[in-house]
Amino acid sequence: QVQLQESGPGLVKPSQTLSLTCTVYGGSITSSYWSWIRQPPGKALEWMGAMWFGGRTYYSPSLKSRTSISGDTSKSLFTLQLSSVTPEDTAVYYCAREGYGLGRPDYWGQGTQVTVSS
Hints:
Blueprint: E1 3-7, E2 11-12, E3 18-25, E4 33-39, E5 46-52, E6 57-59, E7 67-72, E8 77-82, E9 91-98, E10 107-108, E11 112-116
Parallel strand pairs: 2-11
Antiparallel strand pairs: 1-3, 3-8, 4-5, 4-9, 5-6, 7-8, 9-10, 9-11
């Protein structure tokens, strides 16, 4: 059974960088894509990007200039950094395993609320 757990600050100030960590329990972290997905209040889920350990990363075109996803196999975790945040980046952020292929998650974390506010 694969479990994912997001962690990071719940409040970020505008113009700062949002940093989140997803720790993976169970399964092999090197055999799937791993992604970040967010849901702003009242809006649909938004796929932000994904990585394959030892391979490529993929980003949503609308967020590519501000997003970085990286990982540490020794610690079974991967991270999200989103720079120059604004209040529009306020959302519940989820990490996920894309076991069905890129853009197709099969396991999700519980999500973590991040609010961008001064």
